[in-house]
Amino acid sequence: PPQKGKKAVEFDFNKYMDSKAMTVNEALNKAIPLRYPQKIYESMRYSLLAGGKRVRPVLCIAACELVGGTEELAIPTACAIEMIHTMSLMHDDLPCIDNDDLRRGKPTNHKIFGEDTAVTAGNALHSYAFEHIAVSTSKTVGADRILRMVSELGRATGSEGVMGGQMVDIASEGDPSIDLQTLEWIHIHKTAMLLECSVVCGAIIGGASEIVIERARRYARCVGLLFQVVDDILDVTKSSDELGKTAGKDLISDKATYPKLMGLEKAKEFSDELLNRAKGELSCFDPVKAAPLLGLADYVAFRQN
Ligand code: GRG
Question: Which SS3 state, helix, strand or coil, does residue 67 take?
Fold first, then answer.
């Protein structure tokens, strides 16, 4: 309920999310058309256009709009981030890593196109993402902002970010002694940094001041970690619902998760705390302008998949 003296902000989050996701899907479809050599583009488009919640590009657009920029300005960067996210999923699904058969409800990329093509098409998506930012935003913003975004994105996805997180995750697989600190390090690097980068790039391209960029970063850091804590909680609660039992599969499997290391109740308390901290970072903004990012934090916290 709204606090006394504060007017409730009317905001249809689902409508916002659907319409932004549709815009992103159209832009992604246009960004990578089918051409020669056909197979690499088919493979890139197969995973890129296979659905997905589009949380990262929508965060990027919402952050840009929060600081006074437009959707149009943020779209190429938002799409580039989704390209990198998609390639990380394609590579994560490979037999040498997670060996998954299904992704976004469809057979994984290597199941359709073969491992050789899935690796190559993933690499192509990674390179193209940077080209897309440089080429498509150079018409609308100055080189200083592009340079900053490219360096944020490179750091967030390289060995100091997602790839570093992936390495520690691989190294600690099946390790029964993994502690909460290591688990958090993995999650921050493997998952939270790209979500954080989405918001930070949105703020940069929208022309935010340093102070606002750092505030957006702190909001996004909480949302990023929240994303993974909720993922871990869902793994437990979803599987217990499916099994009709009280203990879900990830309380008994080898995988280290928040519920496993701190207990389900404490993990839920931690997710509430992260949600409050994320929202607290936005309290200095006009609530109407902050409504999409506040809604996105709730969406991440209360999602069911
Ligand atoms: C170069 C970025 C990069 C990575 C290569 C394979 C690898 C190294 C990293 C793995 C990264 C990974 C799979 C992280 C998990 C992130 C995560 C929580 C994915 C699920 O995200 P959702 O729920 O998925 O947003 P949708 O399908 O909705 O987009």
Answer: coil
Q: Which atom of ligand 1 is nearest to the CA of 158?
A: 1
pTM to 2 decimal places = 0.93
Q: Indicate if ipTM > 0.90.
A: yes
Rounded CA-CA distance 102/111 in Å is 9
Report yes or no: 192 and 215 within 8 Å, Cβ to Cβ. Answer: no
Q: How far apart are CA 24 and CA 166, in angstroms?
A: 27
Helix orientation angle between 71-92 and 193-205, rounded to the nearest 10 degrees: 160
Token representation of residue 59: 């965060």
Closest approach atom of ligand 1 to CA 55: 25
Nearest atom within ligand 1 for CA of residue 227: 18
Ligand 1 contact, 230 CB (< 6 A):
no
Give the domain 13-302 fold: Farnesyl Diphosphate Synthase (1.10.600)
Per the CB < 8 A criterion, the answer to whether 126 and 150 are in contact is no
Is the minimum distance from the CB of 163 to ligand 1 under 6 angstroms?
yes
Q: List the residue whose alpha carbon is closest to atom 6 of ligand 1.
A: 92
pLDDT tens digits, one per residue of 91-117: 999 999 999 999 999 999 999 999 999
For residues 16 and 9, give the distance between their C-alpha atoms in angstroms, rounded to a whole number: 14
Ligand 1 atom closest to the CA of 91, numbered from 1: 6
CA of 198 relative to ligand 1 center, distance in Å: 13
Instruction: Specify the DSSP class assigned to residue 36.
Output: S
